[in-house]
Amino acid sequence: MKFITKILLLLVFLSSFGVSYADNDTVVYPIDPATLYSGSLTVQINPTPIHVNDTIMIIVTATNTGTADWGQLKIYMPVPKGTQFVSFVVPDRNLQNYDPDTGIWNVVQMKHFDRGQQKTAILTVKVLPSAAGKKLRATASFNTLILEGYGINMAGQASNARADVQTVLIKGDGPGDGPGDGPGDGPGDGPGDGPGDGPGDGPGDGPGTTDNANNGNTNSQDPLIHSNGDSKVISELNNYTNSQPSPLTSQSGGGGGGGKKVYDVSLPSISKNDFYSYLIAVLLIIGMIVAGYYYGIKKED
């Protein structure tokens, strides 16, 4: 009898931790299974800022921090408007189940401990020109999330990811590369070369020739000096060498009295070969003089 009493007491005690069923066969748990759920879902666009024709990644991460496993897990992460699907990958996982048309990532299951506690998916898309100047919105939410062992879908109660919104720029938009090259090259080349060559045909200092002095005619009768101011001597010197600059360097004031013009004429410079020729000629003359001198002395002796 005592044994039967103990069995009955044990059954009553165990029944207090079990589940009960209502008349409509609804399972009634002693505690709320929703308290077993805890998790997070995040979404991020990388890199930023975004430009037209850029290829960007939309990174979605789900984490189970509760005390129950998640089954039949599906996450909605659609291809954003204004972009084109390129690829989808779940790093370090065998199951790569994503439909770009529906935007459903079929995760299947997530444990609440160890390696299965977190999973990350990378959706790669290309930004289309039609998205220029618009907001690109990346979102992620739980489509189905069943608490295994309880059969409760927590998708409606679980918090969805906070959307990542970026403005699509056109190439060249946004801040520049910094300040320019700075001020210019400074002031110009400075003042000119200075004053000119001086005054022209002012009066001379001394008496000129008396030819035509009485009638004030300043034209020279010298056949080498013409009235137009050109010098025949200068012309001859110019014909002597074409490599030298003009021998007529300047005109100074005219001579007094007769009014005849006086010219400063610079002769062409002597080349090195001509200099040696003149030197040899001078040495020969000196040699002849010395030889004649000794010859005369010898003759007198």
Automatic annotation (TrEMBL):
<keyword id="KW-0472">Membrane</keyword>
<feature type="compositionally biased region" description="Low complexity">
    <location>
        <begin position="208"/>
        <end position="219"/>
    </location>
</feature>
<keyword id="KW-1133">Transmembrane helix</keyword>
<feature type="region of interest" description="Disordered">
    <location>
        <begin position="169"/>
        <end position="259"/>
    </location>
</feature>
<feature type="compositionally biased region" description="Polar residues">
    <location>
        <begin position="236"/>
        <end position="251"/>
    </location>
</feature>
<feature type="compositionally biased region" description="Gly residues">
    <location>
        <begin position="173"/>
        <end position="207"/>
    </location>
</feature>
<dbReference type="Pfam" id="PF01345">
    <property type="entry name" value="DUF11"/>
</dbReference>
<dbReference type="InterPro" id="IPR001434">
    <property type="entry name" value="OmcB-like_DUF11"/>
</dbReference>
<keyword id="KW-0812">Transmembrane</keyword>
<protein>
    <submittedName>
        <fullName>Conserved repeat domain protein</fullName>
    </submittedName>
</protein>
<feature type="transmembrane region" description="Helical">
    <location>
        <begin position="275"/>
        <end position="295"/>
    </location>
</feature>
<feature type="domain" description="DUF11">
    <location>
        <begin position="41"/>
        <end position="143"/>
    </location>
</feature>
